[in-house]
UniProtKB/TrEMBL annotation:
Species per Swiss-Prot/TrEMBL record: Skermanella aerolata
Domain (PTS EIIA type-1) ranges: 32-136
Keyword set, alphabetical order: Cytoplasm, Kinase, Magnesium, Metal-binding, Phosphotransferase system, Pyruvate, Sugar transport, Transferase, Transport
InterPro entries xref list: Dup_hybrid_motif, HPr-like, HPr-like_sf, PEP-util_enz_mobile_dom, PEP-utilizing_PTS_enzyme, PEP_util_C, PEP_util_CS, Phosphohistidine_dom_sf
The name this protein goes by in its record: phosphoenolpyruvate--protein phosphotransferase
Amino acid sequence: MQTTSQSSLKPDSLKIVAPLGGILVPLDQVPDPVFAQKMVGDGISLDPISNELLAPVSGTVTQLHNAHHALTITTPEGIEVLVHIGLDTVMLRGDGFSPRVKMGDTVKVGQPVIGFDADRVGRNARSLLTEIVVANFERVAHMTPATGMVEAGRSVILELTLKDGAANGTGVADTAAPGAEAQSEGIPLPNHAGLHARPAAVLAGAAKTFSSQIHLIRGDDKVNAKSLVAIMGLSTKQGDVVTIKATGPDADKAIAALATLIADGCGEKPGEAPQPAAETAATTARAFPTDANEIAGVPASPGLAIGQIFQYRHDVVEVEQKGGASADERRKLDTALAEAGSQIEELKGHMRDPSKAKILDAHKELLEDPDLVNLALDGIAGGSSAAYSWREAFTRYAKQLEGLDNPLLRERATDIRDVGRRVLGLLAGIRQEKIEVPQDAILVAEDLAPSDIASIDRTRVLGFCTTSGGATSHVAIIARSFGIPAICGIDESALHLDNGAQVLLDGGRGMLRRNPNEAEVARAREQIAKLAERRREELATAMQPAQTRDGHRIEVVANIRNADDALAAVAAGGEGVGLLRSEFLFDERDQAPSEDEQARSYGAVAEVLGRGRPLIIRTLDVGGDKPLSYLPLPKEENPFLGLRGIRVSLDQPEMFRTQLRAILRAAPLSDLHIMFPMIATLEELRAAKRILAEEQAAGASETSAAASVKVGIMVEVPSAAVQADILAAECDFFSIGTNDLTQYTLAMDRGHPKLARQADGLHPAVLRMIKLTTDGARKHGKWVGVCGGIASDLIAIPVLIGLGVKELSVTVPTIPAIKAAIGRLSLSECQALADEVLALGTAEQVRARLAPFAE
Ligand code: PEP
Ligand code: MG
């Protein structure tokens, strides 16, 4: 290994030195497409063994992310060297990182720039793999990466030959080209973590395809939109309003394209439930305050509220330990349990939303839980009072659950405490008083149980903050279903805020702001009013079956991952589930889930939906670009064209059979549909069906419902669309995966920084594929749904309906808006529109024609 103390030797070459000690890993082996596909730039990755990041080159710090996990140093030659510590570390929002430099500092190679707590970051992030990439790689003629073990600050890890003239460059050209000037409206950033590496790369890549000079503007900050580093340097956050300005010959075109790209999340699927890694982080990552007036927690339900603090507390119930005769104590316990059951029934009677009533059903079951009741009876048998024994029993039981690894089970401890307190109150002769909540209250509590929420006057509550729980807690689920903002796991200092103090609650950021100034309040009020008006209109009709204004029925169902999502979907007006992404259960673990674990998970979703709503479970959709650590699959040159989707299941039949058995166990509980992903050929469909039929036959004695399960395929490969009439004869339904269908139809990688913008699901070629699919299905009387991203996009709804799509499977938060949009359309208008856009030549023309439907 070559070592050096200089970062550059000749003016046309540059040596980049290891910023950390560790083992070098080729960039394309990094398990994150942003880096592996070189969206951010080319370079190398390093598995670190040290925890002080040193400057890999001498230069100026031109970007230091506010989460302190990444920085860029620009060398005097204008080469931008970006170092990104770990994967998905943006979600840690600075936790565990200590910057030693600030923006604008001049640094020498080998100088410490960021310290980090490797243990803490390693525990909370996906990986510690650190990437060192040249962001403006277009200036590099040749790169020689090193391999093996390297020493921080000494070993050369990349040797670059710069292109002619690059040595004098200063970054991406930002000179004004002659021509028109155009500027977009303000666009609120939908991205969960702002324009971090991935979306910034997509935006810069797209901006570079225009010859105009392009700027991204936020408030007084204005940066070159063709520079990844400059965009990242803005340190934007979700909800920041940005505008895009272009000057030059193609200014109008640039604004139209880039504004849409930003509004759509720059390839990050804004409305979509977060990606696995981001979701994990979102459920645990606590926001970090940037000033003393902010109190941080975990974002649990998005939205803004301005209200007054109301500290919500449970009375402490005092009980005597010593009991009377055990028969008497037992009678008291039985009576209290029965009375609690009636109270819950009564409470349920006031609930119109079946998903919340279900939570109370679970409470009733707990009253009959033999383990819990026996624990209390043991206490009584030992001479303790019924109240004391019961309190001991339910707190012990709740603590047991709280100690488990499974966050969902941990959250259920809240139910036990809730129902436990109800019975305890009855045993102690204390009536559960209804707590009077003031108007415009932001409720702050250690915990809010479902029955607390059920018994408060909702019209007075604008938001919740709890010091316990996370994004999967009931408070979070219920807040999301109420559509009010919530923060869970908030810092305990929130418990000491005075009742009546005005605060600004930002659920999306997980931040509570005390002492907001007038301008902040006014801004928030304006935003709240706009959103509320729109949501009011949409929610008014969300629970009704979706239909066009001329009575054509369209099913609006949800894309989900688990039972909690199913609850949220039903609460938002979802008429069922059109895509249960089962791969979430298989991800981020060291072995495949067992049949029982899978069956429990699918069963939980089935129970939420009941037999009256369709449940479509997609079998495992991994492989290729989405590897599973425990799955022995070969490394492939073209992962999107390799072992992926159903091909993995056919290659690993035992895993497939286990999953099918688990899915079939949900059949008696639900209107079950099984869907195979990425079917490209009739042979694949037949092979998958044969295995399913064998499992159905093997389990026939257990359940006859399993035999009536519907079987469908995802149409996401052109061959399936073209042969839809053949495939339709052998399955019950199609669901079009437009995300993949688009990339395969246009031969454009859906995550490619330069191509993603053109890989548009509204491209006429993709629309023609959809038409082939609906035409083929119609010949056999089969129905077609769409579960890809465009189903959640208002602009696409009329054309999909016009093409004959009967079901739209959408992201949960968009359900009310999609249903409302359907109600504004007529079938004949949609059909005429579909005919019209099918005849167009480009996606841009389609978008222009459909633009009036975007809002
Ligand atoms: C699709 O391809 O459109 C789809 C819904 O599947 P995924 O996005 O999970 O690949
Ligand atoms: Mg797909």
